[in-house]
Amino acid sequence: MRCWIGGLAVLGPGLPGWKASEAVLAGEAPWAPADCVVPPPAMLPPTERRRTSLAVRLALAAAAEAAAGEDPAALETVFASSNGDGAVVGAILEALTDPAGAISPTQFHNSVHNAAAGYWGIGVGSTCPSISVGGHDDTVAAGLLQAAAAVSARGRRVLFCAYDAPLPPPLAAVRRTTVPFAAAMVLLPEPGASARAVLDLRFRPDTTPAVAAPADALGALEAENPAARALPLLRALATRRATALRLPLLGDSVLEIELAPC
Amino acid sequence: MQPLSITAGTTVSALGAGREALRAALHGRRGGLRPGDFPGGPEGAWLGRVSGLEGVALPPDLAGFACRNNRLAEMALQTDGFADAVGAARDRHGAERVAVCLGTSTAGIEETERAYRRRSPDGALPADFDFERTHDLQSLPRYVRTRLGLRGPALAISTACTSGARSFLEAAVLIEAGLADAAVVGGVDTLCRMTLQGFASLELLSRGPCRPCAADRDGISIGEAAAFVLLERADAAPPGSVLLLGAGASSDGHHMSSPQPDGLGAVGAMRAALDAAGLRPGGVDYVNLHGTGTRANDAMEDRAVAHLFGDRGVPCSSVKGWTGHTLGASGALEALVAAICVEDGLVPGCLGVEEADPEFRSDVATANRAAPVRRVLSNSFGFGGSNCSLVIGRA
């Protein structure tokens, strides 16, 4: 499968957007930890904007940055998240331990895994198809594979966005997500002025051990958030050098990516 | 899109285990909804609960996956010879060429609810709680993939109540992109307090069994179900086989939990499915409605169907009066209903509805009709403004 990469986005500790992070991702400037500031989504009406959680704000901010050079309403979307809106789900689980069991209707509709996708559609006025997927530690690879398959099979432009926010206790203790992180990219069916790189992707059975994350501060982030497993791809895109990547999938397979700059 | 063959299929719902139980219930007009007895569920709501589920054991080597959702998945894999049919496909294509695309809205969260009630005094979850293999969305496709000995791509889709239908579309994408030759698709969703109390909080639960399209309909009855289908390229399908002919999706871009009132999103998904099948609306003989029984959904869907097919343009109905709304499983379950309608020449009239809402412009069946049914359009809509339609039938 082949697709081209257009607009890009990253949001995480010390990574405040693609442009501001490109040198760090390319290894030309040191990464320094800094709080991840996520703006409320300007695309939503004020009443909705105030109610959005960190998970939704992360997803929308990254998606908006990646889609900045496009008509955002014309993009199909793949939103990938391991935990979904863990803060909302955690609050509901907490409320359900009360014998009365009453929960907030707004929290309930915000608990669905496709909440971020729903707000994206509302925010940009899109009626394009959208999927929301999970995949635990392999969320990025699983989502990217499906997004690339949609590009390849149907020739559509697809916005791929991976995001995860920290979980509240007690869930935090059973699912490590210590920092917010989001990455997004527009996948194109053909090369164009906005294309930055071409990706050839392959799904292949492979049980050899996963490649260890680079032994630097940025590499250490990969273990802190499932969406940060996008970092090897983001770093390769920032360096603009031909790179071969192997992202683990399902414990017995890999997503192989050959990246070449345009 | 290239049509895909429905080589095997199975379902377990409140109507019982297997496609024949579903078929018999549809013909005999026997519903599966009962007054709710699910612990922690809201008072007075009727449910489509699967009996005997609590006693289902998973294979010992997969015991870590044990939760209500995977028990129901296991029950379905053992039904209708489904696991054996997938095994044969695995032998034909190779394990790495069979994908698993499954939808669920809540996966094993009922297990997490139990774990929250067993927290230690300091608030920690019990040590035996397996988040990754129960709560996590990929629990369902991982369980099914491992249980069936498959090595192809696997996808956990969670687009609320369109998840099950959407799995068909995403599997078609994988096959068309050359990543797989066959796919296990479908959905599993099971009763849990979160879903039941959530719909109660939105005041969307019916006081009795749900009655989609009735003038005095008053909401949803929640059900649980597993439904699986094995999709393969249709080249080798015998003439007359029931196929997945098309699939299409759209977003409302309107509101998180209320549909766009004119049904524009629904029209978009139906059009996309018809386009994918290379059909005009006249090529459809029956529309299986999402038809949840809420005031807003059914009115919106009636407008959407009438917009596309014209006033009284095509017979349509909802089967939620039989099964309840099985959420992320409903689209897959109703794909199997659609196949039965084609095989048997059946338009199942909405159960428990004497007369359709007189305001409606579409031709809502309230009694079973015998009629040639070559192709069915089946709708699913969900929170977040997610819409997905499938075309099931003969080429």
* Parts with pLDDT < 50 across at least 5 consecutive residues of chain B: none
Shape of chain A: globular
Q: Please write the string of helix (H) and strand (E) elements of chain B.
A: EEHEEHHEHHHEHEHEEEHEHEHHEEEEE
Most extensive interface between two protein chains, with residue counts: A-B, 64 and 69 residues
CATH-derived architecture of chain A: 3-Layer(aba) Sandwich
Number of helices of chain A: 9
Number of helical segments of chain B?
12
Strand content of chain B: 15-25%
Number of domains of chain B: 1
Question: Can you give the helix content of chain B as a percent range?
Answer: 25-40%
Fourth CATH level, the homologous superfamily of chain A: Thiolase/Chalcone synthase
Q: Based on the structure given, which CATH architecture of chain B is correct?
A: 3-Layer(aba) Sandwich
CATH fourth-tier homologous superfamily of chain B = Thiolase/Chalcone synthase
The proportion of strand residues of chain A reads 15-25%
Characterize the biggest β-sheet of chain B: 12 strands, mixed
InterPro entries (chain A): Ketoacyl_synth_N (IPR014030), Thiolase-like (IPR016039)
Pfam families (chain A): Ketoacyl-synt_2
Protein name (chain A): 3-oxoacyl-[ACP] synthase
Organism (chain A): uncultured Acetobacteraceae bacterium
Outline the structure in words.
Chain A is of the alpha+beta class and 262 residues long. Helices cover 32% and strands 24% of the residues of chain A. Chain A has one domain: 3-Layer(aba) Sandwich (Peroxisomal Thiolase, Chain A, domain 1), CATH 3.40.47.10. Chain A has helices at 18-25, 46-51, 54-66, 86-96, 105-110, 115-124, 139-154, 217-220, 231-239, and strands at 2-12, 15-16, 76-80, 130-134, 158-164, 181-188, 197-205, 243-249, 253-261. In chain A, strands 1, 2, 3, 4, 5, 6, 7, 8 and 9 form a nine-stranded mixed sheet that branches. Chain B is α/β, with parallel strands linked by helices and 395 residues long. Chain B is 32% helix and 21% strand. Chain B has helices at 19-28, 68-77, 82-93, 109-117, 131-135, 139-147, 163-176, 193-201, 264-277, 295-309, 320-323, 330-344, and strands at residues 4-13, 16-17, 34-35, 46-48, 98-103, 154-157, 182-189, 222-223, 225-233, 243-251, 286-288, 315-317, 346-347, 363-364, 369-370, 375-382, 386-393. The two termini of chain B are 12 Å apart. The mean pLDDT of chain B is 97. At the A-B interface, helix 4, helix 5, helix 6, strand 4 and helix 7 of A face helix 4, strand 6, helix 7, helix 8 and strand 10 of B. Strand 4 of chain A pairs antiparallel with strand 6 of chain B.
